[in-house]
Amino acid sequence: MDKKSIETGLSKDQLSAVADLAKTNTYANQSKWQTLRELPREEKFPYFIQHFLLGTVAIIAAVAIVIGMTVFYLTRPPATKLYVATFGLADQSQKLSDLQGDFAAAHPEEDPRVFAIDATFVLTSTASPSASASDDASASASSSSSAGTGSAMLGGAYLDDSAKLAAMMASGEINTVIATRALFGEMVQRNNINDASAVLDASRLAALGDAVVYADDLDASAAHTAVGLDLGRSRTWKAKGLPDGAILGFGNVSAGTQWPLAFVDFLQFQ
Fold first, then answer.
1. Which of 46, 79, 103, 217 is most buried, most CB within 10 Å of its CB?
2. More confident residue, 69 or 265
3. Where are the domains of the chain?
């Protein structure tokens, strides 16, 4: 043991450790980034993890969130202004798509994505047997494609798009409806159809004349209330080769009547 060790009571290794601790910190009073650059290569990564990892991860996450939100808002489609739900007309989907395109073309100032004619809805019918044979066949086909049973209900629940229809009506997404006569009568009974007066004032209803369909036309026991328009009297509808016997009505128009009314004008009833 050397003299210094004897004087201090510390071993040589302990004295060396104390000397290292007493050295001036080469990296004191400089930024962490400067320190990182000056550290030996083998010490850089541990130093980075200790001082920068969490901050770097937080910055990357924040940037990713901002980019994701920007992409979402730039690419999401605009809110629909006219949503026409159709029932019993699935076999006319191409013609209905063409009709949608024609309506969009008639309003070039609007993004065409704000207009939709949806032929995918299925609704089973429990309408009166007095409905026409062709309408009953259409209703039966819709029921079969939905449930494979031909029954309108099973265990008290509809085997079709009734729940979807109710939800979209309640949210105000569906503002216009087109259905075959039997299915339209079913929807009137279910209170899915708004009175025509919600969109058409008395003068317009009078001008539409025989094109107006009343509730008691569909069910003799119903009130004499205008509920729809006979598309067999629409020049535009017939020009597309779409079938007679379909009826146009109105859903939830709480967001406004501008576009349902514009669609009525576009159809050119006579």
1. 103
2. 265
3. 3-75, 82-267
